[in-house]
Amino acid sequence: MKRKASRLLALVLALSLIGAIPAAAAEKLVIWGHQEEVWIENYQKIADDFMAENPDIEISFEFFPYDDFEAKVQTSLISKNSDCDIYEMWGGWGIDYAPTGCLDPIADEVAEEIRAEAFPSTYGAMEYDGKIYALPLEFNIECGGMVVNKHLLGDDPIPITWDELVAAAKKGTVRNGSEFEVRGFDFVGWDGVAYTFAAMIMSQGASYMKEDGTFNVTSPEAKKAFEALADLVIGDEPVTDLEGLTTAGALENFQKLFADQALFVPHGPWVLADGITTFGLEYGTDFDYVQLPWFGDEVAFPAETGWCFSINAASQHKEAANRFLDYLFSDEVLMQNNVACGQIPSKKSVATSEEYLEKFPYAAPLVDILDKSTFIGYFNTDRFKEAIDNTFVDYCTGVYDSSDAALADMEAKLNEIL
């Protein structure tokens, strides 16, 4: 009896000691992102749901104003420090940093899923030497959709062809001398000129790239597109001006549309939220979103890699980071993220699903053309846009004697970025 009591006492003491041992601390993941109110709330909701299912992992976010965020991320990538575990990355940054070893490849099984299920453009810039270095969150589309100001359009029909678009833009343009009160077709902006020009070339069945990987913007198709685009600015009946590229602090072209200063604006669907929240407008009543008429006979356009999540190669929590990214790529979570942020999902099955369109009907003009896109190319897209935009402005302001001279100079500048 005494031996049994001793054993019982020993068992009680042992259990009490076990109870006194603290539970293993959750593995902590630090994620850096940029400040965008809706995005912050959405990311936190996704993280909370993930942590509820994975109590062994704790996620902490640090958000920074965009200008500071870009510099902070790139400084961290260069120094290869372990200040965070997961970076919110713009896809184009991958071209500069994936080859340096500062990012960790996505787990093989997730990478296989990405290749099988995502649109190629959504991860093209994050692929290097057979590995993928980011989980693509969105299909970044800046060409293919067009915002329409319904008040300014009135009872006129929405244009279906390029010729109809130009005619409607000219009719809808209002000028007071040299000043525009209403721009009929305001494509002039950082993304707008470059993307519209490239898509105009592609819609003619041509390419802005040669088979050897160098640029080709001196083709007959490129010349035809360039001159047609410039005519909308410097022709006999201009429908817009260069303010979007030459005037600091000017409203973005889509903001002009929401302020009744533009009739048509080509843009991605993410700008629609600004019309609803900032300008207090109603979709379908005050403005609409339709497919952009194509310059040529084909539906073809470039798309670059957009927002992604990448794992820091210096992270001490890579397995946990991969678990979170795998969770992000699930259909339900990917849809939640893109609906909240006003984006197109990177996964084909989600982007074209009826459920997604029910939740985000603005994407309707785009889902049927997503598979007509081509990855823009493995180069720095900021420098690509800069070369096209600057040449376009210079041509429209008389710096070049001819379009041939302008396009030859543009091609030389573009090939310098390769």
How many distinct folded domains?
A: 2
Under CATH, the homologous superfamily of the largest domain reads Periplasmic binding protein-like II
The total of beta strands comes to 17
Instruction: Report the CATH topology name of the largest domain.
Output: D-Maltodextrin-Binding Protein, domain 2
Net shape: globular
Provide the structure class. Answer: alpha/beta
Give the overall average pLDDT. 93
Sheet bearing the most strands, described?
6 strands, mixed
Query: Uncertain segments of ≥5 residues (pLDDT<50)?
Result: 1-22
With helices defined by DSSP (H or I, 4 residues minimum), what is the helix count? 19
The CATH class label of the largest domain is Alpha Beta
Q: Strand share of the residues?
A: 15-25%
Radius of gyration: 26 Å
Relative helix content: 40-55%
The CA-CA distance between the termini, in Å, is: 86 Å
- Which architecture of the largest domain per CATH? 3-Layer(aba) Sandwich
Give structural notes.
By secondary structure, the protein is an alpha/beta fold. It folds into two domains: 27-140 and 304-365, Periplasmic binding protein-like II (D-Maltodextrin-Binding Protein, domain 2); 145-303 and 379-415, Periplasmic binding protein-like II (D-Maltodextrin-Binding Protein, domain 2, 3-Layer(aba) Sandwich). Helices cover 45% and strands 17% of the residues. It is built from 19 helices and 17 strands. The strands form five sheets. Strands 1, 2, 3, 4, 7 and 15 form a six-stranded mixed sheet that branches. The chain has a five-stranded mixed sheet with strand order 10-11-12-9-13. Strands 5-6 form a two-stranded antiparallel sheet. Strand 1, helix 2 (37-53) and strand 2 form a beta-alpha-beta unit. The longest helix has 19 residues, at 2-20. It is globular, with a radius of gyration of 26 Å. Mean pLDDT is 93; it is low at 1-22.
